[in-house]
Amino acid sequence: MAHDDNLLPNQPRKTKVPQFRIIAYLFIPLLAILFQVYVPRFVEYLSYLELPLLVTVYFAIMRRQPIAGAVIGSAIGLLQDSLSQHPLGMFGIVKTLVGYFAASISQRFDVENSALRFILSFFFFLFHQFFFWVMASGLLGQNLEFQLPQTIIFAFLNAVVAVPLFLILDRLRTIER
Amino acid sequence: METFLSRYRNLTALLLLIVGQLLLLAYQVKAREDVRLIRIWAVTAVTPMARAIEWVRGGTGGFFSGYVFLRNVQQENHQLREYSSQLKLKNQFLAAELATADRAKALLEFRSRIPSRTLPARVIGTGTGANSRVVYVDRGTADGVKRGMAAITSEGIVGKVVASYPTASLVQLITEQESVAGVISQKNKVRGILKGQGKNTCVVEYIQNEEKLEAGEWFFTSGADRIYPRGLPVGQVKMVREGRGGKEVTVEPSALRGGGIEEMLIVLDGVHGLLPEIETKPDTEISILPPPPGETSTQPAPSAVSEQGGQLQQTDADKIREKYKRLGESQGFEYGASPGRVADFNRPVPAAPPPPKPETVKPPEPAKQ
Asked: Is B3 in CB contact (< 8 Å) with chain A?
């Protein structure tokens, strides 16, 4: 049986790595966090959107370097933590892991594919929420309830938003090397 | 070692980042202290932007949206429709302004009514995290706001301040999962702990199944949590049923009913109040005649009068007390005045004085035909 090397190669993909301006790395996460701070005030239903997570996933899969993904995730997570009621490090740790794993996956898969981006966003939202719940329960001893059906619906909605969002962010690319 | 680190470079970097943040987390949990500097930087950086957006929205947002909308209408044709749309928009804008003014007026009126010292605050943003139930308000330590202060409106309690910074404070809404408040029901005086559950409703825990509680009953703050002053409305019971460990009670917080909140009062100096009494309206649907002439309605019912003494005796304890009193009196013993001497309680109980004869009402004679 023929094996499709392009789908799941044994070696990391040797594709071009898109580059962004430094200002994009600074302002897009900041805008995502500001969106989360400000917009749900007026449109309450948008509070389910976890834009900082989607931005983390996007930059991580575009950079295709696990260390860069982890650093981006940790920076966005810590900034998000500093504006939340949780101790610093809760979102930071979770997003560090998300960034690392997203970047690792992008070395093996074609992350330009919208269907794969949808699946990755769905999966990483579930992972993010579940791991955050584990940390809040295990490390902080908080008695939080993990609402699986609601989380699955939110994961789906975030994945739906992620596909066009990633296409918009694709336009901000500058060089590919 | 160098080879090992270079071989597992990615994993090492990940571990370093995770361990670093875990140490940061452990420090905060162990010392029960926040890394305040980072938060102050972040909040101070974000607050001016949030204020600016709020100002733009409040001041020119309505006009701008109206202008854009009118341009679209103009391109589409009729001037009359354009004029109508403009009026509608203006009407909406004025209605929104009026609603804001009404809310502010109600809040100020409420502020002057309650004994607690409060500070008006305006919401300028929400917390981060999906489905977060915390909000930022435009008052901070510079205005005297401290962590642990209650946030209320005229409709009820909103939440409590969980962090305060120089220019803003973070208020955890009562619907947040970690929120708790001591509450007491208005009618049956049932006490419980109100807990948020990350939804629009809260639950009240630690209520025994034997306790009486009705749907629609109001809960007020009990003051037991030392956060919310006693006597503030919390919400109405939406659902109540018996559960395994106690009653399952769902309460809809009255202050957060209908979605978002724009303004609130921060309680700087809380003063406990009283629970408001239930207003019982006279039932106008049932006709009751006044008492007949010569009789008063204040007379006790015959069943309430003792057969022996003609005095009101409502309990068994009252009857026993009366029996011992009569025994002591028959032996010339005065309770509390004769130390060392004890009345003989084995003697037969003397007969009670005859009860007053009840008034007999002569039935009217039938008319002779």
From this structure: no
